[in-house]
Design brief:
Elements lengths: L6 H22 L4 H5 L2 H11 L14 E4 L5 H11 L39 H14 L6 E6 L6 H12 L5 E7 L2 E2 L2 E2 H4 L5 H7 L3 E6 L3 H13 L5 E6 L22 H10 L2
Parallel strand pairs: 1-2, 2-3, 3-7, 6-7
Antiparallel strand pairs: 4-5
The protein binds thiamine diphosphate and magnesium ion (MG).
Length: 273
Amino acid sequence: MQKTSNVEELQAIAKQTRRYIIEMITEAKSGHPGGSLSAVEILVTLFFDVMRHDPANPKWPDRDKFVLSKGHGCPVLYAVMAECGYTPVDELKNLRKLGCIYQGHPDVRFLPALEASTGSLGQGLSLAVGMGLAARLNQSPSRAFVVLGDGESQEGQIWEAAMFAGYHHIDNIVAIVDYNKIQLDGFVKDILDLEPLVDKWQSFGWNVLNIDGHSIPALQQAFADASATKGKPTVIIAQTIKGKGVSFMENNPKFHGMAPTADEAKKALEELA
Ligand SMILES: Cc1ncc(C[n+]2csc(CCOP(=O)(O)OP(=O)(O)O)c2C)c(N)n1
Ligand SMILES: [Mg+2]
C-alpha cells in the first residue's frame, strides 16, 4: 500500500471513506453512521500515515496493532482496511449480510486481519494493554492504538485498564477517545457526564493530548508526541462531531444507529462529492 503524510491526500482518502460509510450502511439498511463518520480522520491518519503495518503481511509480528473498541463503528474500519488493500472494496456493499467478512461488529472469525473481535463496549483498552505488555516482554517495537467512544468511557473496565497502564508505565499504547458528545440515545452530558476528562486521565498517570479530532495535522502532531513520550501511556482526547461531513447527521443523536433512507443517502453523497 501507498502511505502518505500529505494532508491533502489524507483528506481525499477521508472523503472517500465517508462515501463508503454512507453507501455500505444504506445498502445494509442498518448500522451506525454517526460514530463511523466521527472517527474517519483518526483512522485514516493512523492507517495511511502513522502505523507500521503491511496489508500484504497482516500477521507481521512487529506490526503496530489497531483495536476499534467501539466496534459498532466498524464501517469506518472496514472502509479503511479495504482502501489499504486488506480486504475487497467491492464486498463493502455486503455489510451485515450472513457470512460476509464485514459483520455488524468486527469479528476475527470472518476477518482474520483484525486484531480482535469488538463491540461489547469497555473491553478494547484492556486488549491494548495486553498487547503493549506483550510487546514490551518481547522487546518488540510494536505499538497498540485503540479507539474508544465517549459513551463507552462510562464503562468501569476502561478505568481499571487506565489505572493499570498508568501504574505499569505502558508507554507503547495510545488510546484515542472519539469525543463526539453523543452516545446511543442522547448527549453524554445529559446521561453521565465525563468532565473533567483531561484531569481524569492525567490522574491515572497518562500523558493527555486534547485536540481537534478532524484536523489531520493535529492528529499527526499528537501521534508524534505520543511516540516521543516515554514512561507513560498517551491518550488523545479527540474533539469530534458525531455524523461529521453530512449536514443532517452532524450532532444528531438519531443517526447513532439508524441507516439513511435512499433520499437521505443521495443528499449525503452529494454533500460528499
Ligand atoms: C457492553 C455494551 N453495552 C451496551 C452496548 C450497546 N451500545 C452500542 S453503541 C452504544 C453507545 C456508545 O456510545 P459511544 O461510545 O459514544 O459511541 P459513538 O458515539 O462513538 O458511536 C451502546 C450503549 C454495547 N455494544 N456493549
Ligand atoms: Mg459518542
